Amino acid sequence: MNQAQIQPQAELRHGRVTSPSSRGAVAMELGLLEGWQVNEMEGGKNFPSLTAGPFPAPYQTDSDSVTPPADGHILSGGKVDQRDCVNFTNEELSKKLGRPFAWPLLNVTPGQNFKVTWQYTAPHVTRGYSWFITKDGWAPQQRISRAQLEPKAFFDDFYTQVPYYSHSAQMVAKVNHEVKLPSNKKGPHVIVLMWIVANTGNAFYQAFDVDFK
């Protein structure tokens, strides 16, 4: 990508996880997406709610959420263009590529610390990060929906300052952070990580395929 292509994206307040490999990163390796598209997996931050409006208390002074992603399009933040490929099942992905292919699995252990590194173009004022995971017995042959995910985040990492506009200098996006994975999971699962923005209606969605050993 040349400098002329990079410069417009440098003005966007977006970001993506660069380590470990997300579904977006895999899609980039496969030539299905470019980096700017993985940076823009943005959708309403009130997930798993389906409705736009105020962010839940005690953070209701943050900007109202736009409509959160629909089922089947969660992993792309609701995007249904080329970015929809990150929602593909292994069968859909294989059909798209014209050859058998499965989302690569990251080997993890129950209860381990899962570390991520982000690359931000120009970070927003950040409320925090929420982590979701698929239920036991989820169906990999189906796209990720709310019914496929545990109903609540297994971890929230939020700045507690309110209102955000009085504390924006402290509410910085984290380049490196980590979470303790659930201790009761076995086998393949999908993790959904949301970077939640205080001063817009969006969160940025990143997804990981893991295998609990």
TrEMBL record:
Superkingdom in the source lineage = Bacteria
Stretches assigned to the Chitin-binding type-4 domain = 14-210
Q: Where is this region: Disordered?
A: 1-23
Q: SUPFAM superfamilies of this UniProt entry?
A: E set domains (SSF81296)
Question: InterPro entries under this entry?
Answer: Cellulose/chitin-bd_N (IPR004302), GlcNAc_Chitin_IntDeg (IPR051024), Ig_E-set (IPR014756)
Pfam families membership: LPMO_10 (PF03067)
Q: Does the keyword Signal apply?
A: yes
Under the heading PANTHER family, the entry gives: CHITIN-BINDING TYPE-4 DOMAIN-CONTAINING PROTEIN, GLCNAC-BINDING PROTEIN A
Name of this chain's protein = Chitin-binding protein
Origin species: Pseudomonas prosekii
